[in-house]
Amino acid sequence: MRLKTLVAVLGVGAVVACAPVQSGPKNSGTDEQTGQVRVWLFDEVNRGPKEAVVKEAISEFQGKHSGVTVDVQYIQVSSRAERFKAAFSDPKSAPDVAEFGNTDLAGYVSAGGFSELDLSGWTESKDLVPTILDTAKVDGKTYGVPWFVGVRALYYRTDVFSELGLKPPTSLDEIAPLAREIRQRKPELIGISAGGKYLFAALPFIWANGGDLAKSDGGKFTAAIDSPQARAGVAKYAELIKDDICPPAACAGNGGDASVEAFRAGKAAMTIGGDFNRKSVDASSAAGKYAVVPLPGKDKGSVAPAFAGGNLLGVLKGTQRKTLATEFTQLLASKKYQQKMYAAMGNLPTFSDVQKQVADSDKFLEPFTKTLQSGTKFVPVTPAWAKIEAQAVVPTMLQEVVTGAKNVDTATADAAKTMNAAFTS
Amino acid sequence: MRRWITESFVLVVAAVVAFPLFWMVLSAFKPEDEIISADPVPWTTRPTLDSFTRALTVANFGRYFMNSIIVALIVVALSILISFLAATALTRFRFRSRTTLLVMLLVVQMVPVEALTVPLFFLMRSVGDSVPVFGLNHLGSLVLVHLAFSLPFAIWMLRGFVAAVPVELEEAATLDGASRFRFLWQVLFPLVAPGLVATSVLSFIHAWNDFLFAKTFIISAVENQTLPLALQVFVKPDQNDWGAIMAGSTLMTIPVLIFFVLVQRRLVSGLAGAVKG
Amino acid sequence: MTAKGQGRTAFAYLAPALLVLAGLLAYPIYQLVLISLYDYGQEQVSGGAPLEFLGLGNYQELLGNQQFWGVLGQTVAFAAVCVVGTLLVGAFLAILATRVRTWVRMTLFLAALGAWSTPAVAGSTIWLFLFDANFGFVNEVLGIQGFSWTFDKWTAFGLVAAQVIWCSFPFVMVTLYAGIKAIPGEVLEAAALDGASAFRTAWSVTLPLLRPIILVVTIQSIIWDFKVFTQIYVMTGGGGIAGRNLVLNVYAYQQAFAASEYGLGAAIGVVMTVLLLGITMFYLRALRRSGEVL
């Protein structure tokens, strides 16, 4: 390559710009009371029922505010990252209100995407389950309203259990021996389908043993995955991914989807699945032959803390209609519409009283609402977590343990080192 | 006899190559509980159109289908024209910085696409301020970016085919008094047509299957989405709808096959035409 | 024509291509190099945080990371296997395709086209389904149910390589077939009249004429296979058990893009480009020594 040409090209470029492009400030400062409120919601495979509920909310909202229209766009979950990043950088394309996953919150907030919400004037908000509302907070400030939650519990095959004369486990430590016994007596079955990449199944084991991923000290996180308690939890979970329960060759590479898949295909006696997996399990060969109990905790009869997944509704920072957007958010996330959303899509509500109502009407939900009421936990709320998750730090650690590449102490110590590097960067 | 053996062998290879495709189509027709089952069989006794129904009832399927077709066809047409001219220049003429250019054309293909999305995003945003049709949220932005990514490859590729045309032929045509323009389009173009087929199929597939740029550039204009993006609705963490994904992929493959059947005649007829003319 | 006249005509032909490429690729690549010198995350992109100039900091972080070098070696070896496999299968089938009747050839081409055009995610998923340890058809037929292809590092790489070859040989095959067909009949006839054997014709007439095309498909294959992403990402679940099946592009995604660390991502992109350029230049040099002119 000719150096001269290269220099010329670079020279021209240097005149055009000397630093990477950035988006300008976008806080408009205006708060218009009329016009169009733009809303982004996640698209669903059968979104008809969801759309109907949302339309109802819109007509109620438009009835109350003259001169206001609401325009809803449905975006795909799998392309959400690019969409939101683009919206933060191009306010012209951004909505006023958006649905988003609670694990994405910290990243979106630090990117300056969402604005703080003041829920004090909203009476219903006091009934929001506190641990769920925590998933909408960063550094103590609220940036969204929990719209629905997803939580995992223990699925087991009733036919297998009654054939072998077994009862579902009542404490966390009973799971491994029970699963081992099933596989011993029925070698074609996986005792419990656990996955080396199934973070949300491993977390309850860590939490139930008194450990955590990281601890926060005034907003500064440090890894805690190498604490004795967390190590005990990791060891307990890794015990499941052994040849006598769930062979590493079949299970070490599995995430949540594949773990539940084995249960659906009738290959596993137990698995950890979410309330949202119900429909797919009911459409599988395990249909009608399974039941669900809360994942038991350390003590007999207790419930292990579960990961509180779910979606939030929030108001974007660049909005020119903050008051209207906030009001619409509160309407769509209200008890009335959460109930309707449950009826339409099966989404678990975030208000404790509404949760009780739906559980009373549908026995299937009981183990899940019971899990929610006994307290849920969450991943570290910091943008660094997005990096740790992308780098698959925890799954890699689990896989190193189950394949015997490292022992629990070394694997957790190495993971802690990587996590701390992300927290401090 | 020998041909019989060769042909059987080729057909066996074709069957092996097509088997995963067969499985894809089969999975699309299987009922949900059979797609992943402990007893996989290469048939189904309960074929169903459920998965196709789910894929086809994605809101505005027709609109997104047309968007994808329009983008892919415009990209193919423009890239053929532009790359043919450029390839001719790079093969038939000697000039300074020719090698530099050729290497640059390779370099731009080496950069990981992911790394370019952010600069391209800002570029499209500024383009849109002056020419809205080529800016964010418009199909024009997709045409531009796919064109840019297909050109370097197309130029290199056609260069090979132009180079394979004997120079004597050009000299003969010039002696016959054909103008440069006539030579280019009536002699050379048909001669490299087989190369154009491979090139255009590739450009078509790239533009047709892409969703990285579609999801980066088409932010709020839902009506300008492309089909692969719309079909992403079936991909969800922890609960993929495999039946619909397979049905959607089957539907996505059909237009490419049609496109190939339409252009494949040019794989051989390029030369025949030129020699006669 | 004078050299100057040639240059002017050439430039006229090149102008449209240069316009598109300069605007849409050269400028973004220049930006990419700039970005690689900064701490440039989502906060910086959307204007929520000031830019911080790191100089070569991103490169230091990358090159100082032991894992990067391991992944790099793996990528080169994996890409080499894929390139060689793709070229051999493609060339072999292209030659066979010239010797069979039209309908047989069309059958092969349509099957190959299907493999080529299947969206990468779907193609990888189907292969995973077929080779699944417990639910896969292949294990059922071979009677080795429970054997996991994706668990062991080497079978996992082998399976992914097979999938990559499956979806990239059609390009080589169609291109080489077109190349063979584009050789003027008179040239071959002349050789035959001179009494050359079929093998001699292939070796000393067909092959030299095909060289520019072989050059292109080889370079293109190197570039594409070096940048494999979807197949590894989908089939080994994001880089294999404990990351042992990582290749550079997946590594870049994991370390940088998924977490919006564009600065580091751009640095990886630059390093990858330089590497690829090196490999390609080496290949071109070798060709030039054997008499090929670019």
Q: What does this 3D model show about the protein?
A:
The complex is a heterotrimer of chains A (about 425), B (about 280) and C (about 290). Chain A is of the alpha/beta class and about 425 residues long. Chain A folds into 2 domains: about 35-150 and about 310-370, D-Maltodextrin-Binding Protein, domain 2 (3-Layer(aba) Sandwich); about 150-305 and about 380-425, Periplasmic binding protein-like II (D-Maltodextrin-Binding Protein, domain 2). Chain A is about 45% helix and about 15% strand. Chain A contains 19 helices and 14 strands. Chain A has a 5-stranded mixed beta sheet with strand order 2-1-3-13-6. Chain A has a 3-stranded antiparallel beta sheet with strand order 10-7-11. In chain A, α9 packs across α18 and α18 (about 395-400) packs antiparallel against α19 (about 410-425). Chain A is globular, with a radius of gyration of 24 Å. Chain A starts with a helix and ends with a helix. Chain B has about 280 residues and is mostly helical. Chain B has one domain (about 50-275): MetI-like (MetI-like fold, Orthogonal Bundle), CATH 1.10.3720.10. In chain B, α5 crosses α7 (about 140-165), α9 (about 180-190) packs across α14 and α10 packs antiparallel against α14. Chain C is globular, with a radius of gyration of 23 Å. Chain C has helices at about 5-35, 40-45, 55-65, 65-95, 100-115, 120-130, 135-140, 155-180, 185-195, 200-225, 230-235, 250-255, 260-290; strands at about 40, 50-55. The model of chain C has no long low-confidence stretch (mean pLDDT about 90). Chain C has a two-stranded antiparallel sheet with strand order 1-2. Chain C has a single domain (about 60-290), classed as Orthogonal Bundle (MetI-like fold), CATH 1.10.3720.10. Chain C is an all-alpha fold and about 290 residues long. Chains B and C meet through α1, α4, α5, α6 and α7 of B and α1, α4, α5, α6 and α8 of C.
Largest sheet of chain B: none
Helix content of chain B: over 70%
Number of strands of chain C: 2
Determine the CATH topology of chain B: MetI-like fold
Order of SSEs of chain B: HHHHHHHHHHHHHH
Radius of gyration of chain B, rounded? 23 Å
Quick one: biggest sheet of chain C? 2 strands, antiparallel
Question: Rg of chain C to the nearest angstrom?
Answer: 23 Å
What general form of chain B does the structure show? globular
Q: What is the CA-CA span between the terminal residues of chain B?
A: 37 Å
The assigned CATH architecture of chain C is: Orthogonal Bundle
- Taken together, the total number of domains of chain C comes to 1
GO molecular function, one term (chain A): maltose binding
Signal peptide (chain A): 1-19
Keywords (chain A): Signal, Transport
InterPro entries (chain A): SBP
